[in-house]
């Protein structure tokens, strides 16, 4: 793609050989019905060795890993078109600065480069201009033909225009707005503009520029866009400092070619999109790059929207879109937190995201290399149409329709906690639209499916995908906890797990399962423990190299009731308290050893420390001796098997 923000994704597609599935019942039924009192489990973090991979569909897949080469947001920023220089310093020689004094209905100019016509001042030459005072209904215009930077110092201004943009940059090589130290500056336009002819539609923002624009300094700037946008550049826009507040009836801050935030405190309230870059003609443009700063956005549309890439290397973000996770939006409304048509790459930062639509969304590829995320959404928490990679970071999804979704998901690290009303991890192809569409809250609800294509008549929000041979979930590390009312992990293809910890508190409905995959699940390492209903229960398959247990109970266990597994010599390998009622347990661990006999206990108590239902340390006081098994094959099934 030339100089495109190109994150090089090499997704090697594995060849799958489809074999006939033979599913039936196996293993002795357990001894007694299962009942117990409900308890509430803490949701904290844990450090446990990890790895996992396949069972239950008698279909095999290659254990070879698809290689996904990613880059940092910093490297991706460098691959885009070079931004204009945003490091201009104010002129130190006061004699070289033209003074523009705003005095209600009049303007007074001291110096060269400015013409005045009534309440309108036009800057006609490159240079430095100092503005101070109040203009009740007037306009500052920049229209220069010479080379060089126009630097405008806002030294305490209050500029209003009832009929046009208070600051209208018609032509210049580059314009820099310096917010003088401790200055308070206000710009506001009216609800209607007067144009020279009916075919014109520009300017359309309170601060409008047809040139590259930079805003920086240590002062404050409040912009009200009553007509359309707040701040808009038809070229590039760089914000390098200042305390900037924007209220707009449409988009808040827009740079057509790019919007770069180097620093500053930015607060945007917009009925349209919050921060936006929308060049559709050049593949190296239309990107948002945020390096630092404090960014608070409340938007009726998307909080951050990039036509190509959204690239973040740091900063503090509070993003609300579409009224938040319980908001009501139409089927055609996009109300996402961070949205890009090509790539999203996040290296670091702290993010609090509350959206009616997806919290983080890419129409192509998405990479998270770090950062801290607190997400509540009415649709997907993190979604990419093509590939989604998490290398590190702390991800907490407190509310979602589906947690993490893409055609290919690779998790190499990170601490990930997901609460979802439908699937926790969902591998499916294509753009799922809006999971909640009409709101409020979770539009599709949790619902079982008749097969893989979605359940006919399920209603708004039920995603519809078909199984394919090029959809994968790779888990090579990390700590992943899923609390799902739908499928805990739902893959329209194959799963490969080599390392990491995966804990699933799965569904109680029989048409959903803690694990649901179509092709294969190859488990070669790590710790996997899931609990859920038994009607659709699956586990890693015989392509695995680490032993797996699928235990279907002969009754329903209450939430919080312990499931304990230990070897005959008393070595504990699992003590787990699911957060929901459960009928089935899937377990794989390096501690499961071929040829060893294990006892399974239900109930009892432990002095160990619980992390997400998984107990570590302490001593276990036995409950009922439920059953026993000997690991004699890669997959051990106990109880009735329904799939």
Provide an overview of this structure.
By secondary structure, the chain is mainly β. Helices cover 1% and strands 46% of the residues. It starts with 15 loop residues before the first strand and ends in a 5-residue tail after the last strand. Mean pLDDT is 84; it is low at 1-69 and 434-467.
Question: Secondary-structure map with pairings?
Answer:
Elements: E1 16-17, E2 60-61, H1 73-79, E3 97-104, E4 106-110, E5 114-117, E6 120-123, E7 127-135, E8 139-143, E9 149-161, E10 167-171, E11 174-179, E12 184-189, E13 205-209, E14 212-217, E15 220-225, E16 229-233, E17 236-239, E18 243-248, E19 253-255, E20 258-261, E21 265-270, E22 275-277, E23 287-290, E24 294-299, E25 304-306, E26 309-312, E27 316-321, E28 338-340, E29 343-346, E30 350-355, E31 360-362, E32 365-368, E33 372-377, E34 380-384, E35 387-390, E36 394-399, E37 402-406, E38 408-411, E39 415-420, E40 425-427, E41 472-484, E42 489-491, E43 494-505, E44 515-517, E45 520-523, E46 527-532, E47 548-557, E48 563-567, E49 572-576, E50 582-588, E51 597-602, E52 605-606, E53 609-611, E54 614-616, E55 620-621, E56 624-630, E57 635-638
Parallel strand pairs: 3-7, 6-8, 7-9, 8-10, 9-11, 9-12, 10-13, 11-14, 12-15, 13-16, 14-17, 15-18, 16-19, 17-20, 18-21, 19-22, 20-23, 21-24, 22-25, 23-26, 24-27, 25-28, 26-29, 27-30, 28-31, 29-32, 30-33, 31-34, 32-35, 33-36, 34-37, 35-38, 36-39, 37-40, 38-41, 39-41, 40-42, 41-43, 42-44, 43-45, ...
Antiparallel strand pairs: 1-2, 3-4, 5-6, 46-50, 47-50, 48-49, 48-51, 51-56, 52-55, 53-54
């Amino acid at each position: 793609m030339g100089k495109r923000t190109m994150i090089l994704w090499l997704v090697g597609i594995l060849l799958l050989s489809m074999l006939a599935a033979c599913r039936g019942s196996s293993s002795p039924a357990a001894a007694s019905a299962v009942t117990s009192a409900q308890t509430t489990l803490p949701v904290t973090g844990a450090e446990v060795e990890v790895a996992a991979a396949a069972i239950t569909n008698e279909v095999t897949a290659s254990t070879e890993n698809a290689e996904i080469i990613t880059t940092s947001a910093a490297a991706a920023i460098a691959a885009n078109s070079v931004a204009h220089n945003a490091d201009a310093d104010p002129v130190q020689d006061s004699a070289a600065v033209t003074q523009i004094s705003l005095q209600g209905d009049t303007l007074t100019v001291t110096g060269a480069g400015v013409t005045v016509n009534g309440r309108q001042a036009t800057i006609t030459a490159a240079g430095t201009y100092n503005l101070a005072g109040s203009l009740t209904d007037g306009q500052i215009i920049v229209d220069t033909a010479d080379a060089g930077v126009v630097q405008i110092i806002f030294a305490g201004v209050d500029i209003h225009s009832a009929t046009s943009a208070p600051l209208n940059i018609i032509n210049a090589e580059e314009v820099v707005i310096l917010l003088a130290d401790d200055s308070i500056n206000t710009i506001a336009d009216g609800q209607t503009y007067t144009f020279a002819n009916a075919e014109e539609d520009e300017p359309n923002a309170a601060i409008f520029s047809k040139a590259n624009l930079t805003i920086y300094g240590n002062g404050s700037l409040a912009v009200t866009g009553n007509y359309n946008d707040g701040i808009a550049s038809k070229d590039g826009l760089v914000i390098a400092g200042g305390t900037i507040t924007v209220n707009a009836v449409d988009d808040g801050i827009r740079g057509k070619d790019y919007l770069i935030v180097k620093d500053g405190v930015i607060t945007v309230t917009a009925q349209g999109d919050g921060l936006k870059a929308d060049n559709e003609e050049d593949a190296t443009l239309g990107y948002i790059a945020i390096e630092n700063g404090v960014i608070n956005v409340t938007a009726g549309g998307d909080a951050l929207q990039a036509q190509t890439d959204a690239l973040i290397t740091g900063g503090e973000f509070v993003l609300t879109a579409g009224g938040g996770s319980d908001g009501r939006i139409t089927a055609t409304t996009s109300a996402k937190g961070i949205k890009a048509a090509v790539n999203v790459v996040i290296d670091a930062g702290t993010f609090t995201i509350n959206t009616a639509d997806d919290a983080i969304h890419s129409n192509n590829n998405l990479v998270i290399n770090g950062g801290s995320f607190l997400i509540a959404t009415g649709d997907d928490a993190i979604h990419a149409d093509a590939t989604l990679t998490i290398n590190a970071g702390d991800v907490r999804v407190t509310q979602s329709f589906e947690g993490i979704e893409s055609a290919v998901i690779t998790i190499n690290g990170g601490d990930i906690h997901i609460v979802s009303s439908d699937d926790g991890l969902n591998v499916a192809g294509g753009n799922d639209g809006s999971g909640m569409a009409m709101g409020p809250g979770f539009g599709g609800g949790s619902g079982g499916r008749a097969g893989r294509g979605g359940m006919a008549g399920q209603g708004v929000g039920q995603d519809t995908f078909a199984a394919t041979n090029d959809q994968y979930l790779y888990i090579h590390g990390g700590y992943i906890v899923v609390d799902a009312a739908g499928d805990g992990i739902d893959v329209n293809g194959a799963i490969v797990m080599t390392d990491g910890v995966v804990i699933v508190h799965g569904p109680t409905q029989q048409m959903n399962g803690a694990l649901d995959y179509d092709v294969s699940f190859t488990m070669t390492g790590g710790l996997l423990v899931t609990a859920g209903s038994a009607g659709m229960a699956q586990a890693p398959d015989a392509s695995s190299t680490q032993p797996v247990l699928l235990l279907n109970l002969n009754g329903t266990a209450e939430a919080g009731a312990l499931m304990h597994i230990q070897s005959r010599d008393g070595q504990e390998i699992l003590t787990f308290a699911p957060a929901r009622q459960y009928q089935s347990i899937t377990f794989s661990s390096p501690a499961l050893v071929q040829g060893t006999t294990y006892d399974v206990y239900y109930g009892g108590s432990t002095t160990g420390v619980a992390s997400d239902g998984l107990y570590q340390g302490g001593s276990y006081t036995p409950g009922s001796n439920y059953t026993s098994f000997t690991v004699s094959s890669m997959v051990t099934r106990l109880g009735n098997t329904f799939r």
